[in-house]
Design goal:
Elements lengths: L16 E6 L2 E6 L3 E6 L5 E6 L9 E2 L3 E5 L4 E6 L5 E6 L4 E2 L3 E3 L2 E7 L1 E8 L5 E6 L9 E5 L4 E7 L4 E6 L5 E6 L9 E3 L2 E3 L2
Antiparallel strand pairs: 1-2, 2-3, 3-4, 5-6, 6-7, 7-8, 9-11, 10-11, 11-12, 12-13, 14-15, 15-16, 16-17, 18-19
Length: about 200
């Protein structure tokens, strides 16, 4: 059943859309630098946030902030209530991808960024950085153990390297050469990791 339709303002030809849903609200962004906050029940526009420069990632949302990347190498934390920029973190080059929220931290890498960053999500301060040695298209995935006190981050790179990294310290637990290009986060079960 078709419920509603929301029409955005004019956008650049070929612009991509990035959507995320949280708490009955859809956050829809595109390359024109606008983030639309829409009620999923009726399609009503609740807020329109202007992001500095073009948006380059799907937003990640927690109870206080919206985390989103632009095409100027910046990862931004925006206030959910005001839309204002709370903090920003700049990569040396490349574009950040969608960050992964894990407790009080953000884990993020991106296009042409050869490093996995772990940031304090309230302030944007760097907790640790892990060099991956090659381009990354896959987003990190976190497996929490011991109530989150001992967690492992799994991430693969285009040269086929799969890394298991201590989430708390940024130290490498183990490393594997798969021999294939890794373009997606691994699926994890009790029997192992599955890559595609």
């Amino acid at each position: 059943v078709f419920l509603w339709c929301f029409e955005m303002e004019a956008r650049p030809i070929g612009a991509r859309f990035y959507q995320a849903v949280e708490g009955g609200i859809v956050y829809c962004a595109n390359k024109d630098g606008c983030l639309y906050v829409i009620d999923t029940k009726n399609g009503q526009l609740l807020q329109k946030i202007t992001v500095p420069d073009a948006i380059a990632s799907t937003p990640a949302i927690d109870e206080r902030h919206i985390y989103i990347a632009n095409d100027k190498n910046l990862l931004l934390a925006l206030s959910r209530t005001t839309g204002e920029v709370v903090w920003q973190y700049k990569a040396q080059w490349g574009e950040f991808s969608t960050p992964t929220i894990d407790g009080d931290a953000l884990l993020v890498t991106g296009r042409r960024i050869n490093t996995l960053y772990c940031l304090e999500k309230q302030t944007g301060e760097l907790i640790w950085a892990f060099p991956l040695g090659n381009h990354v298209k896959a987003e990190p995935i976190v497996v929490n153990e011991k109530g989150g006190e001992d967690s492992t981050v799994y991430i693969g790179s285009e040269n086929g390297h799969l890394h298991a990294i201590n989430r708390q310290t940024g130290g490498e637990r183990w490393f594997c050469e798969t021999g294939v290009t890794i373009k997606a986060a691994p699926a994890i079960t009790e029997n192992g990791l599955f890559l595609g």
